[in-house]
Design goal:
- The complex is a heterodimer of chains A (114) and B (112).
- Chain A is mainly beta and 114 residues long.
- Chain A is 0% helix and 50% strand.
- Chain A has strands at residues 5-7, 10-13, 19-24, 31-37, 43-50, 53-57, 65-68, 75-79, 88-95, 104-105, 109-113.
- In chain A, strands 2, 4, 5, 6, 9, 10 and 11 form a seven-stranded mixed β-sheet that branches. A four-stranded antiparallel β-sheet of chain A has the order 1-3-8-7, with no helix packed on it.
- Chain A starts with a strand and ends with a strand.
- In chain B, strand 6 (56-59) and strand 7 form a beta hairpin.
- By secondary structure, chain B is an all-beta fold.
- The relative contact order of chain B is 0.34.
- In chain B, the strands form two sheets. In chain B, strands 2, 4, 5, 9, 10 and 11 form a six-stranded mixed β-sheet that branches.
- The chains are: A mainly beta (114), B mainly beta (112).
């Protein structure tokens, strides 16, 4: 069964450093998402991406965040200058179309900012 | 934007009992309501969903009901088992916005 894959599974970084989290969505899916989950808290929407552009973003997704689909398969989340409060699990998700709504999540990338 | 409230935040039941988790949403344009189960350290996984043109859906021990007028939906788990212990999240999906907004989660503990 096709799966969303994410790398790295865990990244430790120093405050102020840039981080890139990578995702490979399911191949016939058209909508891509990044969600964030701080330990023990809810799953928070960051950004949705469709047709090579951002379709929606939350207040969390400020100028320090960016997303890109550099080729036909990867979908990346970049945090330019990490802060302590960026420590969280970042989930990539994809869905075939917006009407379907069912999100297929990757296993997540745990980011620890020291 | 959409606001989803979920209750209770924690729920403890004896094995074999039923568990009910309730959610409300604010945006009447939301039209798809999934429920996700998240085990410790794992990703959320869809367990059941319901669309806005349906009032109830059942899959074995799990059922979901939707009241569009009142903007609330509920998850019902019958004959609970210890392996049902997890965090459950409801979500409301808005097609035009193309995103799902999650509730705060309910930690379900099923005691053997």
């Amino acid at each position: 069964e096709p799966e969303v894959t994410q790398t790295p599974s865990h990244q430790v970084t120093q405050m102020g450093q840039e981080v890139i989290l990578r995702c490979v969505p399911i191949s016939n899916h058209l909508y891509f998402y990044w969600y964030r989950q701080i330990l023990g808290q809810k799953v928070e929407f960051l950004v949705s991406f469709y047709n090579n552009e951002i379709s929606e973003k939350s207040e969390i997704f400020d100028d320090q965040f960016s997303v890109e689909r550099p080729d036909g398969s990867n979908f990346t989340l970049k945090i330019r200058s990490t802060k302590l409060e960026d420590s969280a699990m970042y989930f990539c998700a994809s869905t075939r179309d917006s009407n379907t709504g069912e999100l297929f999540f990757g296993e997540g990338s745990r980011l620890t900012v020291l | 934007g959409e606001n989803v409230e979920q209750h209770p935040s924690t729920l403890s039941v004896q094995e074999g009992d039923s568990a009910v988790i309730k959610c409300t949403y604010s945006d009447s344009a939301s039209n798809y309501f999934p429920w996700y189960k998240q085990e410790l350290g794992k990703r959320p996984q869809l367990i059941i969903d319901i669309r806005s043109n349906v009032g109830e859906k059942k899959d074995q021990r799990i059922a979901v009901t939707l009241n569009k007028t009142a903007k609330h939906f509920s998850l019902h788990i019958t004959e609970t088992q210890p392996e049902d212990s997890a965090v459950y999240f409801c979500a409301a999906h808005h097609t035009n916005a193309g995103k799902s907004t999650f509730g705060d989660g309910t930690t379900l503990t099923v005691k053997p």
